[in-house]
């Protein structure tokens, strides 16, 4: 078991440190390459929302008594740190190789010690790539297709958590990682807000599921559903 995790981390180190020129020489699964080509081709498309929410719009602006919006320094830094475009930080073939690592089964207990051996430069680069994937997967415009050779959103988030758990102290001391950590914090807040908003309509959705559907509606009908 421990040997398998050491191999996984060794592959990660090899792939993340590999020059893009060398990665382009690797023979890879056409389906995996096609998936990343589609994902990267969307870089200059619509900015999109993160599951219906913009990550920079969930800062929770406070209102003073006169209705003036008060923005904290942290919120200003957070918005400034959010990049206008989502650009893949690694080459196409290197991204495909990293995706294979993300899709590999692992155990947190055995993998964490090996991840601590990564240098800060590689940790930041890998987190930037995970952030890129997270943004793309969270967009409303991203076409989720079952059975694709690609990591799932859950796998991406699990790896983000693993890297932060293993290298958080190093990242805090790395100036280049500040904006990255702020962005990750912003995206997590957007997901928390999404879950909160969905929770508000949970009761209504449950009531709708209990309603008896009249299948004999004829060729034309108008039905009114009152939620409140």
From TrEMBL:
Highest rank taxon of the organism: Eukaryota
Example GO molecular function: RNA binding
Domain Nucleolar protein 11 C-terminal: 5-228
GO biological process: maturation of SSU-rRNA
A GO term from the CC aspect: nucleolus
Protein name, as recorded: Nucleolar protein 11-like
Species in which this protein is naturally found: Larimichthys crocea (Large yellow croaker)
Organism classification: Eukaryota, Metazoa, Chordata, Craniata, Vertebrata
């Amino acid at each position: 078991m421990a040997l398998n995790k050491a191999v996984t981390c060794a592959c990660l180190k090899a792939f993340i440190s590999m020059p893009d020129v060398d990665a382009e020489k690797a023979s890879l699964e056409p389906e995996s390459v096609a998936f990343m080509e589609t994902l990267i081709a969307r870089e200059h498309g619509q900015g999109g929302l993160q599951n219906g929410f913009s990550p920079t719009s969930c800062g929770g602006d406070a209102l003073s008594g006169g209705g003036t919006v008060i923005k904290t320094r942290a919120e200003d830094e957070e918005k400034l740190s959010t990049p206008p475009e989502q650009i893949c930080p690694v080459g196409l073939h290197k991204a495909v190789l990293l995706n294979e690592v993300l899709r590999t089964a692992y155990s947190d207990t055995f993998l964490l010690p090996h991840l601590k051996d990564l240098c800060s430069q590689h940790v930041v680069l890998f987190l930037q790539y995970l952030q890129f994937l997270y943004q793309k997967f969270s967009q409303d415009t991203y076409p989720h297709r079952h059975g694709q050779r690609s990591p799932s959103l859950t796998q991406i988030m699990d790896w983000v958590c693993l890297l932060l758990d293993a290298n958080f102290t190093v990242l805090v001391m790395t100036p280049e990682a500040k904006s990255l950590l702020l962005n990750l914090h912003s995206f997590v807040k957007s997901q928390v807000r999404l879950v909160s908003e969905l929770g508000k309509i949970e009761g209504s959705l449950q009531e709708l599921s209990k309603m008896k559907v009249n299948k004999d509606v004829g060729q034309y009908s108008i039905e009114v559903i009152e939620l409140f």
